[in-house]
Amino acid sequence: MTKTKIDVTLSKTKKEKPQSDQLEFGRVFTDHMFVMDYSPTKGWHDARIVPYEPISLSPASMVFHYGQTVFEGLKAYRTQDDKVLLFRPEKNMHRLNLSNERLCIPQIDGEFVIEALKQLVSIEKEWIPTAEGTSLYIRPFIIPTEYFLGVAPSNFYRFMIILSPVGSYYKEGIHPVKIFVENHYVRAVDGGTGKAKTGANYASSLKAQEEAAKKGYSQVLWLDGVEKKYIEEVGSMNIFFKISGEVVTPELNGSILEGVTRNSIIELLKSWDIPVSERKISMEEVYETYKKGKLEEVFGTGTAAVISPVGEFLYNEQKMVINDGLTGELSKKLYDTLSGIQRGTMQDPFNWVVDVN
Ligand SMILES: *Cc1c(COP(=O)(O)O)cnc(C)c1O
């Protein structure tokens, strides 16, 4: 794509910013957004930063019918010395293009979008909360905009980036979650769209999530879609098990979403010489190690929480309480280190952090 300048139209009004301690996830949006459009003749064009406002689309827009959508999620952090940092944004752009490829959406120029994102985040700098644990959540997404009811890839698209200040995931400090091991519904199968960040995957997960919530579990653990035997991941997190000193996470098998956090945790563990393997792991194996007292820690990884320790599984009516329902030592160390790198309070030997200024 041609690297046209990004047109900027600043908002005439400024919304009131929420108090740090009242921030929720994804309910409040900043004053501006990034937009660009795609057409077969122009490619991606009209890259612009404009006031945040509703968009107008025909009811026949393809986005309302067949779910050909993709999205990303990352964060910007404001440091004590007032710098603005992004965490591995090139990974998100790479993954967005993998999702695009699977959904028949044209590729975007990741470098260009990162430049646009830096510009947008700089304009919205005052929106980035500074209190402990808070950040600015960044949501890039692409929707099909052609007016057509036929089932086919759209010829026209809109790419947008919206920003939302978010509160600390752990209001009272990092604490373990309870997870329901899903043995009826499935999330994805090999050959499906599991490895793409596409809306449909989340639509089909809602029912299981709702039923688990009724039983008092905050998330579900998905098993493979064929045998319902091997562990895949949690709703929006990858999962890790510490068994007899070794860390195991399911291998990328085509139906698991490759998290940027997952990748970073594996790199961190390797740099600490802690054995870590990516392999098939069944729920039966986890249960057996649990019974033998060898299941030391379990944690999920994802942009929202960074590390989410698991305190309990419900698996075929059996309750498994992990590490007495407490946050494990390794989980805590990984959380402190990774969030320290992301927030610029710890050394970044991997060059993961990108300075926006
Ligand atoms: C986004 C997501 C993750 C976590 O990815 P991160 O890049 O670490 O935030 C894991 N699983 C699913 C299904 C996801 O949508």
Structure overview:
This protein is α+β, with helices and mostly antiparallel strands and 357 residues long. It folds into two domains: 7-166, Aminotransferase class 4, branched-chain amino acid transferase, N-terminal domain (D-amino Acid Aminotransferase, Chain A, domain 1); 177-343, Alpha-Beta Barrel (D-amino Acid Aminotransferase, Chain A, domain 2). Helices cover 22% and strands 29% of the residues. It has seven helices and 18 strands. The strands form two sheets. Strands 1, 2, 3, 4, 5, 6, 7, 8 and 18 form a nine-stranded mixed β-sheet that branches. The two termini are 25 Å apart. The model has no long low-confidence stretch (mean pLDDT 95). Pyridoxal-5'-phosphate binds at residues 73, 197, 233, 236-238, 257, 259-262, 301-303. Residues 73, 197, 233, 236-238, 257, 259-262, 301-303 line the site of pyridoxal-5'-phosphate.
Task: Please sum up the structure shown.
With 357 residues, this protein is an alpha+beta fold. 22% of the residues lie in helices and 29% in strands.
Cα-atom radius of gyration = 21 Å
Q: Which assembly state applies to the chains in this document?
A: single chain
**CATH C-level name of the largest domain:** Alpha Beta
* Alpha-beta content class: alpha+beta
Q: Indicate the CATH architecture of the largest domain.
A: Alpha-Beta Barrel
Major sheet characteristics: 9 strands, mixed
Helix amount = 10-25%
Low-confidence stretches: none
Overall average pLDDT: 95
Give the helices and strands as they follow along the chain. Answer: EEEEEEHHEEEHHEEEEHEHEEEHE
Compute the separation of the termini in Å: 25 Å
So what's the overall shape?
globular
CATH superfamily of the largest domain: D-amino Acid Aminotransferase, subunit A, domain 2
Number of strands: 18
- Give the count of helical stretches: 7
- Classify the fold: give the CATH topology of the largest domain: D-amino Acid Aminotransferase, Chain A, domain 2
